[in-house]
Amino acid sequence: LSNGVMDLSWAIDQNVAKFPNTVVLTGTFGPPDATTGRGTASLNVAAGVTATYKFAYYIISDDRVLLVQTDARGFISGLLIPTLSGEVRYQKNAGSFANGSLNVPVVFHLTDDVGFWDSHPMIRVGQMVPNGSGSLSATFDENTGGTIKLNTTATSVYSVSANGRVTWNAPENAIAYLVDQNNGYFMTQDFDGAGFGAFEPQTGSPFTVHSLAGTFLLNTSPPATAEVENDAGWMALADDGSATATLYVNAGSGATPYSLTATVTVASNGRGTIVLNTTPPSVPRQVVFWAISPTRCVAVSTVNPGDAKPVLFYIERYDGGY
Hints:
Strand order of the largest sheet: 11-12-13-14-15-16-17-18
Radius of gyration: 20 Å
Order of helices and strands: EEEEEEEEEEEEEEEEEEHEEEEEEEE
Largest sheet: 8 strands, antiparallel, barrel
Shape: globular
């Protein structure tokens, strides 16, 4: 790898909130196994202190690769050695990005671990509407350790560099990299670390319950903190907004199945709510979602009695068959 750039938050001398901008990224990828697609990689990050991280990778396709770090976690010369995992995506239109590369509504999700001494999870989902010339508006829903913000709005300026690096300043300062037009990853620059998220173009509006009706698979993202539950299941949504679902919930002591009924509403911009009732007993759980398309949504739990540990849901239509 050559001519690489990276933005990151890392800990030096056990202090977080280090945000070097566009640091140098180099490294090597070894050849993949012809059968499994597995290989190894070494990435070098230079920003005053130079770190070399080792990875194993697996090829999914010619434009997507999964990575997991293989270093032992710890500190070397005051530099944190983390345990990272993620993906490499092929960047389309490389070198030709501009403010016009963000010019349609996008749906985003953000996960963060907020607080230094007493951390708690923060999940945010919403919609950004960039105008293609450097201004955007955002509408989002957020749960931060049980403190909930619903249908909150913000405005911001943004700037896109030719290499796809983007900055904006609301709801907080953030740095993004585009994979393609209106599609990318971003991180926030919080005082106690960095939140991480992604966004992609929204299609299929105006939305209705009818346009969303069908059978969906649901699962939660990797938890923001160790105490957050993991969920997986399915939901069948009818044209009238009624739904039935089965959800397996693992809060640290094994997966427990719940049979649920639900009521679903959605606005034309794709923002909707799912009110779940377990049977038995009847304990309402409310989820706010944003539709990326008629077949995909992201959601955050916003009312969960006695629980200040929100989760991010991925919801995707299931058309049958494996």
